[in-house]
Design a protein that fits this description.
The protein has a single domain, classed as Rossmann fold (3-Layer(aba) Sandwich). β4, α7 and β5 form a beta-alpha-beta unit. Helices cover 42% and strands 26% of the residues. The longest helix is centred in the N-terminal third of the chain and has 14 residues. α8 packs antiparallel against α11. The protein is an alpha/beta fold.
């Protein structure tokens, strides 16, 4: 199951690599300018960008760091990202890497960031353990991801929506689940930020959906939401068609 999901991640992201470079939700998030502000990097700092996708974290931090190591499981995605960044930044290195088995020695990095990717990881506990391992003592880690509500029914609705639209989706965790994993790996939370994120449905669903039938299944699921889910996710329906909905995103910084 784990191997098949990771192969699906490679397939989905390899085919849609350029969409993630240009996607507004990934490229223009309010969180990107906060990365350097929160991390307060030194000129010689080494930073690990885990599951870089379209390279937005690497782009944001390269001007503030000595070296950024930009990693991704999907070779085609990483090649595409490097193509977009190489001309502007000479201090970014590109390494094919699994977030759950990072190919780096212990205590290699001053900081690590993983943004809008962990919901694709089959074993988030391995990812957090590996991140803690490669951080230097005192190193900082920023995690940014879509999170599930604490209520089980709402969490199930959210994760079902994501899985119907994207076969490479594993699971969005809740804040409490992430906090437990950080604590178990001696990563102390020092700062966090909650925000609501609006998905424009037509653009969002077509980023990874592979057929019109799949798009219809996702829309049917959203249209069938119960009252609690309709209210929580602010599902906007006009003329019988889903226009947008809203999810929670969490940004947290922890220190080793």
């Amino acid at each position: 199951m784990e191997d098949s999901l990771k192969e699906k991640v490679k397939s989905v992201f390899g085919k849609n690599a350029d969409k993630y470079v240009t996607s507004d939700i990934h490229a223009k998030g309010d969180d990107l300018p906060l990365l350097a502000e929160w991390l307060q990097l030194e000129k010689e700092s080494s930073v690990l960008d885990i599951a870089t996708g379209g390279g937005h974290v690497s782009r944001a931090l390269a001007p503030h760091a000595g070296t950024v190591v930009s990693t991704d499981l999907t070779e085609a995605m990483l090649e595409n990202t490097a193509k977009h960044l190489k001309e502007d930044f000479g201090n970014i290195l590109y390494v094919i890497a699994d977030a759950e088995g990072l190919p780096f020695l212990p205590e290699s990095f001053d900081a690590a960031v993983c943004r809008i990717a962990p919901h694709h990881f089959p074993h988030p506990e391995k990812f957090i353990r590996e991140t803690a391992r490669v951080l230097k003592p005192g190193g900082k880690f920023i995690l940014i991801d879509n999170i599930a509500p604490e209520e089980n029914e709402l969490a199930l609705f959210m994760n079902t929506t994501e899985k119907l639209r994207d076969a490479s989706h594993a699971r969005c965790l809740s804040k409490n689940e992430w906090r437990q994993l950080l604590q178990e790996n001696d990563l102390k939370e020092i700062q966090s930020l909650d925000r609501k994120k609006t998905f424009q449905y037509p653009t969002w669903v077509r980023r990874t959906a592979e057929s019109e039938e799949q798009i219809q299944r996702v829309e049917k699921h959203l249209l069938g939401a119960g009252a609690a889910a309709q209210e929580y996710f602010q599902i906007d329906v006009q003329n019988g068609e889903v226009q947008s909905f809203v999810i929670d995103e969490w940004m947290v910084m922890a220190k080793k």
